[in-house]
What does this fold into?
Amino acid sequence: MDDFMKESIQEARKSLAEGGIPIGSVLVKNNKIVSRGHNKRVQEDNPILHGEMDCLNNAGRIGSYKDTVIYSTLMPCYMCAGTIVQFKIPKVIVGESKTFSGARKFMEEHGVEVVDLNLPECIEMMSDFIEKSPHLWNEDIGDL
It folds into this structure.
């Protein structure tokens, strides 16, 4: 596993420790982390503050995103995927899509390269969370 995914997992664990949903993300440009974030929907009572959205918000105005890669511990949902497409981020590397299939096809149809690492650590973290907090999870994915 590369260091950027390890950092995304750290962000996910940070969210979990804060009582939130364990999804983390980092944005990489020129082989360096530009920003990081994690799901803060619960912590900040903000319905759109998914891990990728927090990460992109924390990046601020970096100009073009065309030479970036975004990492996420979980396959992005349609909201996050739409932002990825809008910003023309060319590549997404995800920890897993077993617990949530997300919007892979949508991103690929818009020219985004999607790499799913299918990491047991990410699958286990989300599976445990979903089992322990199904109401929060269903709220996060709009399935209430």
